[in-house]
């Protein structure tokens, strides 16, 4: 994937943030990447990253300021800012809100504004209840036009039997496939 305008929404699955930075590095090599951060990802210090350090790394990798407000994200629609959008990581909370049409964060407004333009949205799942409460939202979004998934798997079937996470190394391939209107297969491995 080269020469594309890519919006990357980052939500609060903090344990996957190092993988998210690697995805950003890959995509930023040859594409124009803009990050949209959820309130949790932009404001919460965790054992994985200090919020300000994470934001600084994202901006360094992309070479542009992040979007953090609903007002900033709303302009994505009318200005047709992106060819494709990726939500990485896509938490169970974000899945539920996407499935039910809630737009109460910059990331969710970005997704809504982007899909309104008839352009693909790719989700890189990371949730502890994908095979539990969030399963209905995964199913709902699998059937949604213009929504694609990065292939995902159980990350710890013994200790976290309902948890699933995307294979972040497949983000670029999933984006390429979505640009062609095709879901990268297999979805679950």
From TrEMBL:
<protein>
    <submittedName>
        <fullName>Dipicolinate synthase subunit B</fullName>
    </submittedName>
</protein>
<dbReference type="GO" id="GO:0003824">
    <property type="term" value="F:catalytic activity"/>
</dbReference>
<feature type="domain" description="Flavoprotein">
    <location>
        <begin position="4"/>
        <end position="164"/>
    </location>
</feature>
<dbReference type="InterPro" id="IPR003382">
    <property type="entry name" value="Flavoprotein"/>
</dbReference>
<dbReference type="InterPro" id="IPR036551">
    <property type="entry name" value="Flavin_trans-like"/>
</dbReference>
<dbReference type="Pfam" id="PF02441">
    <property type="entry name" value="Flavoprotein"/>
</dbReference>
């Amino acid at each position: 994937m080269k020469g594309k305008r890519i919006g990357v929404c980052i939500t609060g699955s903090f344990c996957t943030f190092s993988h998210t930075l690697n995805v950003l590095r890959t995509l930023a090599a040859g594409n124009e990447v803009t990050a949209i951060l959820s309130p949790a990802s932009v404001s919460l210090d965790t054992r994985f990253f200090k919020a300000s350090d994470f934001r600084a790394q994202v901006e360094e990798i992309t070479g542009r300021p992040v979007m953090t407000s609903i007002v900033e994200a709303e302009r994505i629609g009318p200005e047709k800012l992106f060819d494709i959008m990726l939500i990485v990581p896509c938490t169970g909370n974000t899945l539920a809100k996407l499935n039910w049409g809630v737009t109460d964060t910059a990331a969710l407004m970005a997704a809504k504004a982007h899909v309104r333009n008839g352009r693909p949205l790719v989700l890189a799942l990371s949730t502890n209840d994908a095979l539990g409460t969030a399963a209905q939202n995964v199913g709902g979004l699998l059937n949604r036009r213009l929504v694609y998934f990065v292939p995902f798997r159980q990350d710890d079937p013994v200790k976290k039997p309902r948890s699933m996470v995307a294979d972040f190394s497949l983000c670029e391939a999933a984006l390429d496939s979505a640009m062609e209107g095709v879901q990268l297969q297999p979805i679950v491995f």
